Amino acid sequence: MYGEIITIGDELISGRTLDLNAKYAAGRLTASGLRVIRITSVGDDQVTLTKTLSTALENSRFVIVTGGLGPTDDDMTNEIVASALNRSLSINKQLLKRIETYLKTRGMTLTPAMEKMAHLPEGSEILHPDGLMCGCSIVEKDVRLYFLPGVPDQMSHLLDNFVLPELLSVYKTVPVVEQRILKLYGVNEAEIMEALKDLTDDTGDVVLGFYPNFPENHITLSLNEKNEATIKKELDRVENQIKKILGVFIFSSGHQDMEEIVGHALLEKGITIAVAESCTGGLISHRLTNVPGSSTYFQGGVVVYSNQVKMNLLNVSPETIETYGAVSECTVREMVRGVQKRFDTDLGLAVTGIAGPDGGSAEKPVGTVHIGLAAGDKSLSGKYRFWGNRGQIKMEAALMALDWVRRYLNGNTFLPGI
Amino acid sequence: MYGEIITIGDELISGRTLDLNAKYAAGRLTASGLRVIRITSVGDDQVTLTKTLSTALENSRFVIVTGGLGPTDDDMTNEIVASALNRSLSINKQLLKRIETYLKTRGMTLTPAMEKMAHLPEGSEILHPDGLMCGCSIVEKDVRLYFLPGVPDQMSHLLDNFVLPELLSVYKTVPVVEQRILKLYGVNEAEIMEALKDLTDDTGDVVLGFYPNFPENHITLSLNEKNEATIKKELDRVENQIKKILGVFIFSSGHQDMEEIVGHALLEKGITIAVAESCTGGLISHRLTNVPGSSTYFQGGVVVYSNQVKMNLLNVSPETIETYGAVSECTVREMVRGVQKRFDTDLGLAVTGIAGPDGGSAEKPVGTVHIGLAAGDKSLSGKYRFWGNRGQIKMEAALMALDWVRRYLNGNTFLPGI
Known about the structure:
2 copies of one chain form a homodimer. Chain A is of the alpha/beta class. Chain A has 15 helices and 17 strands. Chains A and B meet through helix 1, helix 2, strand 2, helix 3 and helix 8 of A and helix 1, helix 2, strand 2, helix 3 and helix 8 of B.
């Protein structure tokens, strides 16, 4: 069953804010087997919202609308919807009472701005059994419309607990849709296309999708409307063919990110790690600690931005830095030994490089990055050249360093450097 | 002059990918005085894209379309556009030659997939004077349509260097629009509305916008179509009124992020800093080092995830951890002294807390966070309770810690804790 999402807010169409609500809702609807055919963002603008709503009513079976339900003057969704659907606005007594109670417990009195929140289009049904930001639904010409607040936590709570269950109970005949994601690192889209050019004729009903997702590349495998046993078999067949060709670049065949894959492998093998970061500035530690339970294997890290700190904290010798520079193979080797020893861990991981925009030279241009890994008595290092702005070079270097850990734990060779 | 943005890709409507292109293009267009009235994302789907294109042609003066120009089978923008505009597809010889040259230098031969990229709708004008991903434009019934690749770097390059200059030269009568942003931390939207309730009648033609942007809140001030001198005076007047009421929460009156504000203040005062992080896991260091030139004031940081490391690296005493726990005022005080001493900096900043989802207790629930600041011989600490998931608690704690530095440098009091 197909529908669409409309998100409302000047901050979206002026480019100030990323539309996290649309991404969340689209992901949850898709994962539930409901198809999203379009996402539209409009401002607090009666004309465009009215047109967008009527187009949606003509083309979709359900419409999720977020934003514009609050007390401020630019929150006008209820008024615009009432006018677009030719319905009157009237006070919802249930909601008004909630607002009054909320204000009373805070020693405040009802203002016209707060009362406005209770003016809903005729026929609206409140979604949440209590709470102020309760959302509501309207059925118009067999199309189910849902109006949710724009605050991401409130929106996701209402979507998960009220909208999705209702949609799934109404549209019981949702076809089985399965999609798998392969996440790749170290290979670009053109190389992927070239590598899979003989395969693409032989995927049967499995549809492949190719998506650059800097610095990763994702391949999706999708199959619709068959029975579950066939779907699994067909997807397995194509997935295995891709893995035969590009397996070494595939770090995740699912929704897990690199840090979850690495974390899971460390946990499973009972291996501990510590990280020394220069140009990545804490990003590797930040990513590793985004994983719940990471304290089991991640002992800690150091961000050694100055040379003095590299010497004091990691025992990098002044002579090494003097002779070879802070961005060099010798320095990264001493850093990685130093961090492994300092944290007393099985593995040490170290990165030193030039994230830019300044600090580059002809010999060591911006984007030059050394990665080091220490395991037991051994240490390894590699030199890479990354491209992009400061943020992109940090992202590339952090992902490459995590990929080194993944490949080491898998017994794979590292990606070739320069 | 008003227009809209259409982004194409199944990854957008299935919620797998955030629409960074739409945000970038919307931001650049708005900043140039061009109004974006709608952003629409559709899949690689002929029916919906065709309808979306014709709606855009009826309602806008310019349309920016991104995605679907590559060599893969799901890249169908050119075909769909040709059919929607009733134009034939024909080989653009200039582009075909570029593709052949590109392949030749790599020792590859022309494949039908690569050749397909050169099939453009009749009347297309190539934007970039060389390069494969060159984008193109079409004028249809006085509406200017631009087709750009979906890869963010390519899209932004073409938009900035070819699309925007052309739009600005065609629509010379762009009205003067100025928008200012005030970024606030430590106050919620309802409190902002309450604080400004008497002001909102007195803003003249200045339109205020209120946008929660977790964990921040943003207020925009916009004014259209007047002469520049008046605009500045009017915006200054309203900005000053807001600052009188909420000034203590406003950390940025511009586009700068907290780390840029803090970094600038440190640089200006010639003060150095080092950071000890437990629950934020490296995020504070990562944010500080996102600022170019941060190595001048940021000496480095430690991520002390285990108790052992807190003791070894920061000299937190085993008795303190034993008696008060790792998440306590006493521990954060010793951490912050330890990091300041270890890195020999003017300021030390430390955070210890429980990011969850596990590790909470009745006494110290998930979200309990202690922040410490050492300056010279003094040290200060505060205890906070944050809400949300692991990622949100990391974000809140990191922002609060950075806000402590900002307030300390400004001579402001810290936000009250618990």
